[in-house]
Amino acid sequence: MAELHENKPKQKKAPEYKRLIAIHAGKPKGGLDECLEVDPEKVRRLSLSELELEKAAETHGKQIVRFTQRNMLRVYPKGIRVDSSNYNPMIAWLHGAQMVAFNMQGCDKHLWLMHGMFKGNGQCGYVKKPDFLLNTNEIFDPEVKHSEKTILKVTVYLGEGWYYDFDHTHFDSYSPPDFYVKVGIAGVPADKQMTKSKIVEDSWVPSWNQEFEFHLTMPQLALLRIKVHEYDMSKTDDFAGQTCLPVSEIRSGIRAVPLMDKKGDKYNNVKLLMRFEFTNPS
């Protein structure tokens, strides 16, 4: 048996192919500067917890972006998230991380951001990094406020479908619901914003007819957040639907926007009638 094993021909692998599929992982023994060192001859994979990334981003933001231009960065939730909650993925995406791990059991706003990010590119599961994160001549700094690129105007006309998708006593036992909408942006710090509509009382088909305006410096990384709640005077407002859309995929015009539940599953009938318009800064 030993003789047969010795005579077995060894498989030959082209070194070019091995370099393509094998990305070495691990952290160097030195400090953060050594971890983020870029070797033009090699590609590495670095893994950081969410807390490690937050601390590194405070002092080495541009170095992280430079590292991810050639190497792979994986970010994962801290181990004490036993409730399957999630961290803010925008920090990782703004620094060019390619692998941002989530607790998929959770149903929170940060998981909704992930759903929104990957609605881009036909929902195929892959979204290309913006060109400015790959520009080796001018390394992007997420903390620096850049000039405005575009203005997104969002008009929320009305909503419908709750009457058919919810029990008629789900929101209020004695009267129709009192809905309001929250519309905001997740992205670079300069673009982050959340606004709120008026409350429309006692209506299953609320009509808001309100416009919201967002001045965006990095629309390529911006996500439009939309949430509907039912106002409750005596306790926490009831959740009534949400969605998250990549701004880069939005086109001007009037749209019927379907809403999702907390898990990210689309309701059968709940939707908002909205208008989107992009204008140039003055």
UniProtKB/TrEMBL annotation:
Matches recorded under SUPFAM superfamilies: C2 domain (Calcium/lipid-binding domain, CaLB), PLC-like phosphodiesterases
Matches recorded under Gene3D superfamilies: C2 domain, Phosphatidylinositol (PI) phosphodiesterase
Keyword presence, Hydrolase: yes
Keyword line: Cell membrane, Hydrolase, Lipid degradation, Lipid metabolism, Membrane, Transducer
A Gene Ontology cellular-component term: plasma membrane
Catalytic activity of the protein: a 1,2-diacyl-sn-glycero-3-phospho-(1D-myo-inositol-4,5-bisphosphate) + H2O = 1D-myo-inositol 1,4,5-trisphosphate + a 1,2-diacyl-sn-glycerol + H(+)
GO MF annotation: an example: phosphatidylinositol-4,5-bisphosphate phospholipase C activity
GO biological process terms on file: lipid catabolic process; phosphatidylinositol-mediated signaling; release of sequestered calcium ion into cytosol; response to stress
Domain C2: 130-261
Name of protein: Phosphoinositide phospholipase C
Organism for this UniProt entry: Gossypium barbadense
Taxonomic placement: Eukaryota, Viridiplantae, Streptophyta, Embryophyta, Tracheophyta
